[in-house]
Amino acid sequence: MSQLRILVGCKRVIDYAVKVRVNQTKTGVETANVKHSLNPFDEIAVEEAVQLKERLSGRISEIIAVTCGPPKSQEVLRTALAMGADRAIHVEVKEEVILQPLGVAKLLKTIVEKERPDLVILGKQAIDDDANQTGQILAGLLNWPQGTFASKLEIDNEAVKVTREVDGGMETISTKLPLIVTTDLRLNVPKFVTLPNIMKAKRKPINVIKADDLKVDITPRLETLSVTDPPTRLGGAKVESVDELISKLKTVGALD
């Protein structure tokens, strides 16, 4: 059996525990002085790559973590390395550059063509834009099969079974490597990163590549016109009877 290489996508996002606020210019959310961390779905992707390496007992030769973003994005690569990735690649863009799914997929395509992994694992979406597009676009650009919303992943030689979550329940598909997989929440539970592994991660290599050197057009195709807070919810009220409830609903226009 030939050895396999896995490439895992990592994105730096506002930490899931932070309450986001719209910025003063109404063009996005406030990111200055706000805690950032590895996108939770990407964390699941890294964990799955590490678990595959353990389960397949020597079949996985290397796990490569990749991120596209400004210099601060390296912190999520260190997290991935501490989780068990072997090395990392940082496709660096300037702080003011806005990366959208198509641009990220184009950058990842160039990295995939250079590194030639057998399996690419990405989070199904990032919790900042919730686009759920990068994995599918990358599969299209590479003309590779894809298994999205994966809740179980099994590899037997070159054959792969992906159990995926769909609206009606679960669906199992069978395909072959090379393959793009996007992870759902139920695929695994990432393990806690220990201090010794954090220290080891500092010695693992991160290769920095300037996005401009890849000669890829990452110009945004979409323009955000305005970002606003959701309307404030009105307080609830108790009623004494069904008739009073119907009357109040008619008053606010909820019933004709």
Secondary-structure blueprint:
Blueprint: E1 4-10, E2 12-14, E3 36-38, H1 40-55, E4 60-69, H2 74-83, E5 87-92, H3 101-115, E6 119-123, H4 134-142, E7 146-156, E8 159-166, E9 169-176, E10 179-183, H5 195-201, E11 206-210, H6 242-251
Index terms:
single chain; alpha/beta; nine-stranded mixed beta sheet; two-stranded antiparallel sheet; globular
What does it look like?
By secondary structure, this protein is α/β, with parallel strands linked by helices. Helix content is 26%, strand content 28%. The chain has helices at 40-55, 74-83, 101-115, 134-142, 195-201, 242-251, and strands at residues 4-10, 12-14, 36-38, 60-69, 87-92, 119-123, 146-156, 159-166, 169-176, 179-183, 206-210. The mean pLDDT is 92.
Query: Overall pLDDT, averaged?
Result: 92
Helix vs. strand class = alpha/beta
Tertiary shape: globular
N-to-C span: 69 Å
Across the major sheet, the strand order is 9-8-7-10-6-1-4-5-11
List the uncertain runs.
Answer: none
Helicity range: 25-40%
Strand percentage lies at 25-35%
Question: How would you briefly describe this protein structure?
Answer:
This protein is of the alpha/beta class and 256 residues long. It has six helices and eleven strands.
